[in-house]
Amino acid sequence: MTVTHSDTQAGFPPVRRLELERPWSWLSAGWQDLWQAPGVSLTYGALFCLVSFAITAGVFLADLTYLLLPLTAGFMLIGPMLAVGLYETSRRLETGQPVNLGAALFVATRSPMRLAFLGVTLMIVLLVWMRLATLLFALFLGTTQFPPLSEIVPTLLFTANGLLLLIVGSAAGALLAALVFAISVVSVPLLMERDVDFMTAVITSIKAVTRNPKPMLLWAWLVALLTACGLVTLYIGLIVTFPLVGHATWHAYRDTIGR
C-alpha cells in the first residue's frame, strides 16, 4: 500500500492505494472483532433485527406492503450510519479500551454535528429513493393496487411492465447506492474518530473510491451480498452479518486512510 502525500499538503487525510484483495482482510479482521466482543456485537445485530421486524410489521398494519421492497433496498443506503456503534467497538478493541454495549449505543464522536448532518443527508437520499420507487410503480404499473406479496415476483418477472419496472428500478437504486457508498464508505468512521469538517470527510471518501476503484468495487459487492443474506433470512441473518460488516468497515477505514 502507498500513501498519497498531496492530500496532506492540501489539508485532507492521506488516502492509501490498496491492493485488490484487501477487502478480504477487512472481513477477516471484522470477524475477529465480532468474536472478541460477541456480547456487544451480537446484541447490536439483534437490536437491528428487532427494529427491522417492527418496521415490517408497521408496513403490513398500515397496508403499505408496496413499500416493503424499496424499504428493504433502502436499508443499504443508511446502513453506514446505523453501524457507528460497531465502529466504536472496533476502535476500542484496537486501542485496548473497555468494550460495552453502552459505549456502542451512545458513541461520543469527535464531530457530532457534522456526523449528524451526514446522517440527515443519507436520510434525504432514502426519502428520494422511496419517492422515486413510488413514481416508478405508478409509471409502469399504473394506479392499480400493488399486488400482494405472493404475486410480486410473478408480476415483476413475467409481465412486460413488471420487468421494465424491475430493470429501471434496479438501475436507479444502484446509482443511488453507488453515490451513498462513495460519500460514506470512510466518511462516517472518519467523522466519528476525528474532528474534521463535513466536506473534508465526504471528499476524502470519494477520493478513497476513485483511487481504489477495484478493491472498493469488491468491497461494495461484499457489503451488498452480506446485507442481502441478512435480509432474505427474514432479518435473522442480520444478527451476524450486520456487525460483521460494521466491524469490517472500520478496518476498511483504517486501511484506507493514513493515521
Fold topology:
Blueprint: E1 2-3, H1 6-9, E2 16-17, H2 22-36, H3 38-61, H4 68-82, H5 84-95, H6 101-105, H7 112-141, H8 149-158, H9 160-184, H10 187-193, H11 198-211, H12 213-232, H13 238-256
Antiparallel strand pairs: 1-2
Helix pairs in contact: 2-3, 2-13, 3-13, 4-7, 4-9, 5-13, 7-9, 8-9, 10-11, 12-13
Give descriptors for this structure.
mainly alpha, globular, 2 strands, 259 residues, two-stranded antiparallel ribbon
Can you walk me through this structure?
The protein is mostly helical and 259 residues long. It contains 13 helices and two strands. It has helices at residues 6-9, 22-36, 38-61, 68-82, 84-95, 101-105, 112-141, 149-158, 160-184, 187-193, 198-211, 213-232, 238-256, and strands at 2-3, 16-17. Strands 1-2 form a two-stranded antiparallel sheet. Helix 4 (68-82) packs parallel to helix 9 (160-184) and helix 12 (213-232) runs antiparallel to helix 13 (238-256).
